[in-house]
Amino acid sequence: MKHSCILKDTVFKKINPGQKIALFLDFDGTLVPIQKDPSRCVLAEGMKEQLKSLADSGRIYIAILSGRSLPDIKRRIGIRNICYAGNHGLVISGSDMTYVHPKALSAKPSIDKAARMLSKEIAGIEGAWIERKKFTASLHYRSVRKEDIPSVKKAFYKVASEFSGDRMLAVIKGKKVLELAPDASWNKGSAALWILHNLKGKYLPVYIGDDWTDETAFRVLNKKGITIRVGKSAKTAANYYLKNQREVSEFLERVSETRLYEKELIV
Ligand SMILES: [Mg+2]
Predict the structure, then answer these.
(1) What is the rounded CA–CA span in Å between residue 233 and residue 247?
(2) 8 C-alpha to ligand 1 centroid (Å)
(3) Which domains does the chain have, with CATH numbers?
(4) C-alpha–C-alpha distance, residues 115 and 129, integer Å
(5) How many Å apart are CA 73 and CA 90, to the nearest integer?
């Protein structure tokens, strides 16, 4: 790897003039900085305007893929004519495509039960809390004291192991969060491919994300398009990196300018 998108022009040379782009974006840590309390993540007005104008160009199909629930991510972005995938892609809602993974529905009673058990287990641990997200449940421990983190993990895996027999639940590890999700062999990578296949016409996929859950998408899109990790890492499967949200914004600006090359050619 792993080249900086901003420093290397080669990435923009991969975008042919006038080419349609499927722009896949993670939310937390990609479009907004990660916060201790995820309910405080707000999309900056400037970034929102950029996304709107890219979507309005008609050339760029935007899909937001998040571990958040679908209503949560929709509310936080607040743009109408784009596609949203919640719960790591288990539910997808775009202007002309919708999807709910069947396992998301069948595993829901197990998720509910596990979440109830988990809240009892972590009741005495300060800073640990559970977020219910309809089809998944997240145990957040960003605010937990360092010495208590092993107890948080122990409680989580104790509950998870009680469901390992029926193959209903899977564990997803994120940044300071452990999540129980349907055991669906479905991830952000599967969701991104599903969206790409359901688009009419040929789109170049561009995927930007920052977390381990985004690696599934980097792996399946690497050869098809452009994969970018926010934050440099030696371990990532992504081909490029951007340092932070400011650089993400700078990158999006340059993507919007690739349409100008088209105009120049026409002249
Ligand atoms: Mg993220």
Answers:
(1) 16
(2) 23
(3) 3-101+186-266 (3.40.50.1000), 104-182 (3.30.70.1020)
(4) 10
(5) 13
Write out pLDDT tens, residues 90-105. Answer: 999 998 899 999 999 9
Nearest to 60 by CA among 108, 30, 13, 15: 15
pLDDT value of residue 10 = 80
Q: How far is the CA of 174 from the centre of ligand 1 (A)?
A: 8
Strands 60-65 and 83-86 come out as parallel
What the block records as the tokens of 4 is: 């900086």
3-class secondary structure, 16: coil
CA of 264 to the centre of ligand 1 (A): 36
Which of 9, 26, 72, 214 is flagged as catalytic? 26
Structure tokens at 113: 């039960």
pTM: 0.90
In whole angstroms, what is the distance from residue 234 CA to residue 1 CA? 8
Helix (H) or strand (E) holding 23: strand 21-25
26 is catalytic: yes
Measured in Å, residue 232 CA sits from the centre of ligand 1 at: 14
Q: Are strands 136-140 and 204-209 parallel, antiparallel or unpaired?
A: unpaired
Ordered strands of the 169-174 beta sheet = 129-133, 136-140, 177-182, 169-174
* Three-state secondary structure call for residue 13: helix
At 172, the pLDDT band (50, 70, 90 cuts) reads very high
Please name the helix (run of DSSP H) or strand (run of DSSP E) that holds residue 48, with its range, or none.
helix 45-56
